[in-house]
Design brief:
The protein is an alpha+beta fold. It has one domain. 28% of the residues lie in helices and 23% in strands. It contains 3 helices and 4 strands, in the order βαααβββ. It has a 4-stranded mixed β-sheet. Strand 3 and strand 4 form a beta hairpin. The termini are far apart.
Length: 93
Protein backbone atom coordinates (compact mmCIF):
# COMPACT_ATOMS: atom_id res chain seq x y z
CA UNK A 1 0.00 0.00 0.00
CA UNK A 2 1.50 3.34 -1.03
CA UNK A 3 1.76 6.01 1.64
CA UNK A 4 -0.05 8.48 -0.60
CA UNK A 5 -3.20 6.40 -0.16
CA UNK A 6 -3.10 6.55 3.62
CA UNK A 7 -4.63 9.12 5.92
CA UNK A 8 -2.77 10.91 8.72
CA UNK A 9 -2.61 8.73 11.82
CA UNK A 10 -1.64 11.24 14.53
CA UNK A 11 -1.10 14.99 15.06
CA UNK A 12 2.32 16.39 14.14
CA UNK A 13 2.18 19.50 16.33
CA UNK A 14 4.67 22.23 15.43
CA UNK A 15 7.09 21.15 12.70
CA UNK A 16 10.81 21.85 12.91
CA UNK A 17 13.86 20.98 10.82
CA UNK A 18 17.43 21.09 12.06
CA UNK A 19 20.17 22.96 10.19
CA UNK A 20 21.61 19.68 8.91
CA UNK A 21 18.28 18.53 7.46
CA UNK A 22 17.75 21.89 5.78
CA UNK A 23 21.31 21.87 4.39
CA UNK A 24 20.56 18.68 2.43
CA UNK A 25 18.51 20.82 0.06
CA UNK A 26 15.78 18.21 -0.42
CA UNK A 27 12.04 18.70 -0.19
CA UNK A 28 11.20 17.46 3.32
CA UNK A 29 7.41 17.50 2.77
CA UNK A 30 7.16 14.01 1.21
CA UNK A 31 9.05 12.52 4.17
CA UNK A 32 6.81 14.34 6.63
CA UNK A 33 3.74 13.05 4.77
CA UNK A 34 5.02 9.47 4.94
CA UNK A 35 5.73 9.82 8.66
CA UNK A 36 2.33 11.40 9.31
CA UNK A 37 0.57 8.52 7.54
CA UNK A 38 2.45 5.76 9.35
CA UNK A 39 5.00 4.82 6.69
CA UNK A 40 7.97 4.63 9.06
CA UNK A 41 10.55 4.38 6.28
CA UNK A 42 12.70 1.75 4.69
CA UNK A 43 15.50 2.31 7.19
CA UNK A 44 13.58 1.36 10.36
CA UNK A 45 13.93 -2.12 11.87
CA UNK A 46 10.93 -4.28 12.72
CA UNK A 47 11.28 -3.69 16.45
CA UNK A 48 11.15 0.08 15.98
CA UNK A 49 8.15 -0.26 13.64
CA UNK A 50 6.32 -2.20 16.35
CA UNK A 51 7.31 0.44 18.92
CA UNK A 52 5.74 3.10 16.68
CA UNK A 53 2.50 1.15 16.37
CA UNK A 54 2.42 0.80 20.15
CA UNK A 55 3.20 4.52 20.52
CA UNK A 56 0.08 5.34 18.50
CA UNK A 57 -1.99 3.54 21.14
CA UNK A 58 -0.19 4.58 24.32
CA UNK A 59 1.16 8.03 23.47
CA UNK A 60 4.92 7.50 23.22
CA UNK A 61 7.47 9.09 20.90
CA UNK A 62 7.30 8.13 17.18
CA UNK A 63 10.45 7.74 15.06
CA UNK A 64 10.79 7.30 11.31
CA UNK A 65 13.95 6.91 9.27
CA UNK A 66 14.26 7.54 5.53
CA UNK A 67 17.00 7.56 2.93
CA UNK A 68 17.14 10.48 0.48
CA UNK A 69 17.93 9.93 -3.22
CA UNK A 70 21.50 11.06 -2.50
CA UNK A 71 21.83 8.38 0.18
CA UNK A 72 21.56 10.60 3.25
CA UNK A 73 19.51 9.35 6.20
CA UNK A 74 16.77 11.47 7.78
CA UNK A 75 15.12 10.95 11.14
CA UNK A 76 11.67 12.32 11.86
CA UNK A 77 10.57 12.31 15.47
CA UNK A 78 7.17 13.24 16.87
CA UNK A 79 7.17 13.88 20.61
CA UNK A 80 5.11 11.70 22.95
CA UNK A 81 2.56 14.46 23.54
CA UNK A 82 2.30 15.21 19.78
CA UNK A 83 3.32 18.83 20.43
CA UNK A 84 6.20 18.84 17.93
CA UNK A 85 7.75 16.93 15.06
CA UNK A 86 11.39 17.42 14.10
CA UNK A 87 13.24 16.42 10.93
CA UNK A 88 16.94 15.85 11.57
CA UNK A 89 20.06 13.99 10.58
CA UNK A 90 21.06 11.01 12.73
CA UNK A 91 24.14 12.97 13.83
CA UNK A 92 21.85 15.68 15.24
CA UNK A 93 19.82 13.27 17.37
Amino acid sequence: MAYRMLRPRFPLGSIFATPGAIALGVDLAPYLRRHHCGDWGEELCGEDREANESALRCGARILSCYRTPAGDRLYIITEWDRSATTVMLPSEY
